[in-house]
Model the fold of this input.
Amino acid sequence: MKKEGRYISRTLENMSKNLSEQRFGLFLILPSFFILALIALYPILRNLVLSFMEQGRFVGFSNFSALFQDERFRSVLINTAIFCLISVPLELILGLTFALVLHQKFFGRGFARAVSFLPWALPTAVMAVAWKWIFNDTYGVFNDILLRLHLIKEPLAWLGRPNLAFFCIVLAEVWKCTPFVTVIILAGLQTIPLELYEAIRVDGANSWQRFRLITLPLLKPAILVALIFRSIQAFGVFDSIWVLTGGGPGGSTEPISLYIYDTVFRYLKFNYAASMVCFSFIFFLLFILIIYLTFSRRQIEY
Amino acid sequence: MSIKNAPAYRQSNKKYRLAPLDSKHLTGLARIFFCLAIISMVVFNLAPFLWQFFSSLKNSKELYLVPVTYIPAKVSLTAYEKVISNPLFLRYFLNSVIVSIFTTFVTLSLASFAGYALSRLKLKFKTALQFLLLLACLFPQIIFLVPLYELMARFSLISKPLALVLPYVTFSLPLAIWMMTRFFLTIPKEIEEQAMVDGFKRLAILRKIILPLSWPALATTAILIFIGPFAWNEFLFSLSFMIKDTSKTVPVGIALLSGTSMYEIPWSQICAACVLTTLPLVLFVIIFERKIIEGLTRGAVKG
Done:
């Protein structure tokens, strides 16, 4: 009888403790929950609603069918895709190299790490202004360096010609975003146990084989994370292009985000912009899925 | 591995352990190549900032000299004087400071609460919260632009600092919560259990025991929020939601200045403004390098 009583009282105590834990936890996460729902989740759903409406009433798929006939939309999609396909692999290669170098021990490593992290911490728009000054056709240092190296015969208008302007925005973006990749890969490198290198070294592998057989396979999760995040962000590139070229010359460097911005703030077509967002949203969700499926097969366990 | 080789392996065991981490074992050409790699990496990452810095110190005559000079022949601070005496720039600067400090403070408090709950307590809505965090960090800003503009306009927040603080807090939360959760997981649970036995209330435990232990983590997270893409550095939302001239932030102010007209761009002032805007961040990163990089990479990516 006594035993039973104690058991019951303990259960009651546990229940009240759990309940208060639940309530306390809810109290702690509620503010974050609320703001995330309002500012992150609601807009995504609202986009969907807006894209099927026009001036406050339901119009079905008419926005989307207009989208398919929009030449400019097609061209910005292509521009964005090319931009992603060039800049993201460059960032991955460069970020991997930087991370491998920074993972070594050498004199001044702290400074080198700080410097290679730096571009990520600086305002993209402000640094795009800096790049604009570097690429200036008359007073720019970029032309000057190339002239001194005799790579070009006369100064080029870097931001004035479609292909050159594309090169400029890719360079500025790669400079800005490589640190993100570097940090993620550096984190991945730190999780690789050193014993594996010892083992393979005893087996007589050279440094290239060590890299290919241990470092690269074990870095795969980190590279995948960097790849997904960078692809998504590159898809929404805005700041650097807005500052550097404004989409020009002749719309040749205009990404989808610039067109959406123009649609909202210049042409004031909210619903059309929302349908563009939804369409590209689905487009790049598929893109991510494809990346994920192709790269996440053959996981290596260690 | 045959038994014969075993002693040799054991002897040089220490060398093998260091091998993938230490550049000292590199010899000859490999060493030179490695040094070159480091130098070109540093130059590549620092170049745009350094060029801006040198340009800002030139006088307006030297700035427009062809061919370009690299180190300024005579250091001139006129550009800085002009920028500092420009009331509009000061206003932009002040706006940026207000918005970023508010963002950092609010994000930090929300994230430490949520991080504590996620790391310590059994919660019903854990998965839902993690899903929302994923939404906020996965998608590019442009996705949120139209509905957020609508929302801000409806609550007449356009041109008010709150219109920036709200989205900045939201999109800074994923990184901040992740940092704080990871930190709380490193505090032994026994400390709290003991305090609980001693009759502390949960809130008191959080305030009197956990908070004093968390200062280093809070500082690192605060730095990361501040230098991250959503406090000092944000551009798109600021460009869209801050219509009034006096409500704009520094990045937008500088970007608009550089786009005014093709021929009359005041480059010397722009360079000085760029340096003034980025220098605090550069110093931040160089001083707190260890905190930042370690905070971001310690056991970060697993699976």
Summary: The two ends of chain A are 54 Å apart (CA to CA). Chain A has two domains: 2-51, 65-296. Chain A is about 75% helix and 0% strand. Chain A touches chain B through 106 residues (CB under 8 Å).
